[in-house]
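2024-03-11 09:14:02 DEBUG pipeline.ingest accepted 1 chain
2024-03-11 09:14:02 DEBUG pipeline.ingest length=154
2024-03-11 09:14:03 DEBUG pipeline.predict start
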Amino acid sequence: MADSVRHQIMDAVIAALNGITTASGYQTDVALVSEQVMSYDQIPPKHLPALFPIDTNEDRQWFALAEQSENDIQAELDILITAVVYDKQNVTRLKRTNLLRDVEKALLNDADLKALILYAEPQRVETDEGNIPDFSIFDYTIRITYTYDSANGG
Protein backbone atom coordinates (compact mmCIF):
# COMPACT_ATOMS: atom_id res chain seq x y z
CA MET A 1 0.00 0.00 0.00
CA ALA A 2 1.26 3.48 -0.84
CA ASP A 3 2.26 5.88 1.91
CA SER A 4 -0.45 8.23 3.15
CA VAL A 5 -0.49 11.77 1.80
CA ARG A 6 0.50 13.01 5.26
CA HIS A 7 3.55 10.71 5.17
CA GLN A 8 4.45 11.88 1.64
CA ILE A 9 4.17 15.50 2.77
CA MET A 10 6.59 14.91 5.64
CA ASP A 11 9.00 13.15 3.28
CA ALA A 12 8.86 16.19 0.97
CA VAL A 13 9.38 18.59 3.90
CA ILE A 14 12.43 16.65 5.08
CA ALA A 15 13.87 16.55 1.56
CA ALA A 16 13.31 20.30 1.12
CA LEU A 17 15.04 21.04 4.44
CA ASN A 18 17.95 18.75 3.53
CA GLY A 19 18.36 20.85 0.38
CA ILE A 20 19.24 23.98 2.34
CA THR A 21 22.85 24.57 1.33
CA THR A 22 24.78 27.58 0.13
CA ALA A 23 25.51 25.67 -3.09
CA SER A 24 21.74 25.61 -3.70
CA GLY A 25 21.34 29.37 -3.24
CA TYR A 26 20.59 29.55 0.49
CA GLN A 27 22.41 31.52 3.19
CA THR A 28 22.96 28.46 5.37
CA ASP A 29 24.41 24.98 5.13
CA VAL A 30 22.13 22.85 7.28
CA ALA A 31 24.15 20.06 8.87
CA LEU A 32 21.36 17.90 10.32
CA VAL A 33 17.69 17.31 9.57
CA SER A 34 16.06 14.75 11.86
CA GLU A 35 12.65 13.82 13.21
CA GLN A 36 14.42 12.73 16.41
CA VAL A 37 14.40 15.97 18.39
CA MET A 38 17.48 16.58 20.51
CA SER A 39 18.22 19.17 23.14
CA TYR A 40 20.62 21.86 21.95
CA ASP A 41 23.34 20.63 24.32
CA GLN A 42 23.11 17.05 22.97
CA ILE A 43 23.78 17.99 19.34
CA PRO A 44 27.41 17.48 18.27
CA PRO A 45 28.87 20.79 16.99
CA LYS A 46 29.49 19.24 13.55
CA HIS A 47 25.69 18.74 13.26
CA LEU A 48 24.83 22.43 13.68
CA PRO A 49 22.79 24.13 12.44
CA ALA A 50 20.13 21.51 12.91
CA LEU A 51 16.45 21.26 11.98
CA PHE A 52 13.86 18.99 13.59
CA PRO A 53 10.57 18.78 11.64
CA ILE A 54 7.58 17.22 13.39
CA ASP A 55 4.06 16.74 12.03
CA THR A 56 1.80 17.95 14.81
CA ASN A 57 -1.90 18.77 15.01
CA GLU A 58 -4.24 18.28 12.11
CA ASP A 59 -7.83 19.35 11.47
CA ARG A 60 -9.88 17.33 9.00
CA GLN A 61 -13.27 17.92 7.41
CA TRP A 62 -15.37 16.74 4.50
CA PHE A 63 -14.28 18.51 1.32
CA ALA A 64 -16.67 16.92 -1.15
CA LEU A 65 -19.18 14.10 -1.30
CA ALA A 66 -17.33 10.78 -1.34
CA GLU A 67 -19.28 9.46 -4.31
CA GLN A 68 -18.60 12.62 -6.34
CA SER A 69 -14.92 13.20 -5.68
CA GLU A 70 -11.77 11.13 -5.38
CA ASN A 71 -10.36 13.50 -2.75
CA ASP A 72 -13.21 14.03 -0.33
CA ILE A 73 -11.37 15.04 2.86
CA GLN A 74 -9.51 18.30 3.38
CA ALA A 75 -6.84 18.40 6.07
CA GLU A 76 -4.88 21.23 7.64
CA LEU A 77 -1.62 19.88 9.05
CA ASP A 78 0.63 21.97 11.28
CA ILE A 79 4.30 21.17 10.89
CA LEU A 80 6.63 22.41 13.61
CA ILE A 81 10.28 22.85 12.73
CA THR A 82 12.63 23.40 15.64
CA ALA A 83 15.93 24.95 14.59
CA VAL A 84 19.18 25.23 16.53
CA VAL A 85 22.08 27.48 15.53
CA TYR A 86 25.40 27.98 17.29
CA ASP A 87 28.04 30.68 17.35
CA LYS A 88 31.02 30.48 19.70
CA GLN A 89 31.15 34.29 19.76
CA ASN A 90 27.53 34.36 20.97
CA VAL A 91 26.41 36.31 17.91
CA THR A 92 23.51 34.17 16.75
CA ARG A 93 20.98 36.70 15.48
CA LEU A 94 22.22 36.75 11.88
CA LYS A 95 22.54 32.96 11.76
CA ARG A 96 19.05 32.57 13.22
CA THR A 97 17.53 35.08 10.80
CA ASN A 98 19.25 33.54 7.77
CA LEU A 99 18.15 30.05 8.72
CA LEU A 100 14.58 31.19 9.31
CA ARG A 101 14.52 32.78 5.85
CA ASP A 102 16.03 29.65 4.32
CA VAL A 103 13.50 27.33 5.96
CA GLU A 104 10.59 29.41 4.71
CA LYS A 105 12.08 29.72 1.23
CA ALA A 106 12.67 25.97 1.02
CA LEU A 107 9.17 25.03 2.12
CA LEU A 108 7.22 27.60 0.13
CA ASN A 109 9.08 26.94 -3.11
CA ASP A 110 9.66 23.18 -3.18
CA ALA A 111 8.05 21.65 -6.28
CA ASP A 112 7.64 18.18 -4.76
CA LEU A 113 5.82 19.58 -1.73
CA LYS A 114 3.67 21.88 -3.88
CA ALA A 115 2.57 18.87 -5.95
CA LEU A 116 1.07 17.23 -2.84
CA ILE A 117 -0.76 20.16 -1.28
CA LEU A 118 -3.31 22.87 -1.95
CA TYR A 119 -1.29 25.55 -0.16
CA ALA A 120 1.10 26.30 2.68
CA GLU A 121 0.70 29.13 5.19
CA PRO A 122 3.47 30.24 7.53
CA GLN A 123 1.90 30.52 10.99
CA ARG A 124 4.27 31.44 13.78
CA VAL A 125 7.89 31.87 14.86
CA GLU A 126 8.88 31.54 18.50
CA THR A 127 12.44 31.98 19.74
CA ASP A 128 14.34 31.20 22.90
CA GLU A 129 14.54 34.99 23.37
CA GLY A 130 18.32 34.85 23.68
CA ASN A 131 18.31 32.87 26.91
CA ILE A 132 20.97 30.31 25.96
CA PRO A 133 24.56 31.54 25.56
CA ASP A 134 26.14 30.72 22.17
CA PHE A 135 22.95 29.06 20.87
CA SER A 136 19.72 30.27 19.36
CA ILE A 137 16.65 28.10 19.03
CA PHE A 138 13.47 28.87 17.18
CA ASP A 139 10.25 27.06 16.38
CA TYR A 140 8.73 27.74 12.97
CA THR A 141 5.19 26.52 12.34
CA ILE A 142 3.71 26.15 8.88
CA ARG A 143 0.17 24.98 8.10
CA ILE A 144 -0.18 22.67 5.12
CA THR A 145 -3.61 22.22 3.52
CA TYR A 146 -4.16 19.13 1.40
CA THR A 147 -6.88 16.73 0.30
CA TYR A 148 -7.07 12.96 0.25
CA ASP A 149 -9.44 10.12 -0.49
CA SER A 150 -11.23 8.86 2.63
CA ALA A 151 -11.24 5.35 1.16
CA ASN A 152 -7.44 5.31 1.51
CA GLY A 153 -7.11 7.33 4.71
CA GLY A 154 -5.01 10.46 5.15
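2024-03-11 09:14:41 DEBUG pipeline.report The mean pLDDT is 91.
2024-03-11 09:14:41 DEBUG pipeline.predict end
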